[in-house]
Amino acid sequence: MYIEGLVIPVKKDRLEDYRAWAERLARVFLDHGATRVVESVGHGLEPGKITSFPRAVMLEDDEVAVFSWMEFPDKATRDAGMTAAFEDPRMGNTDDMPMDGKRIIFGGFETLVDCS
């Protein structure tokens, strides 16, 4: 399994806009190889002395951190799926994103341990 993970700063008063936007994009990623898309809102995330989710995205007082991840069967599926998703007209343009895209952190991860 391969995971694409993101931490996203979202204005608290735009959280519902973000949810609707994320649901629309989730369908695009699922249609292009993702097997699961999850969006989670942070609770009780305090800024750490050295590092933390709030520090990572320079979270402002009127924002919440959203932790998002997409599961793919493998990196090759992720790579092809991301390319196809960003070419899909349903993605829209970045002008309608309900968050500050410049402060998103993201990366891909190969599964090391998966316990159920």
What does this structure look like?
With 116 residues, this protein is an alpha+beta fold. 29% of the residues lie in helices and 28% in strands. It has helices spanning 15-31, 53-56, 75-87; strands at residues 2-11, 36-41, 63-72, 105-110. The chain has a four-stranded antiparallel sheet with strand order 2-3-1-4. The longest helix has 17 residues, at 15-31. The chain is globular and about 35 Å long. The chain starts with a strand and ends in a 6-residue tail after the last strand.
User: What is the SS-derived class?
Assistant: alpha+beta
Large-scale geometry: globular
Cα Rg: 15 Å
Distance between the termini: 14 Å
Q: State the strand order across the main sheet.
A: 2-3-1-4
Mean pLDDT: 94
- Helix coverage percent of residues? 25-40%
User: What is the tally of beta strands?
Assistant: 4
Oligomer state equals single chain
Major sheet: 4 strands, antiparallel
Q: Spans with pLDDT under 50 lasting ≥5 residues? A: none
- Total number of helical segments? 3
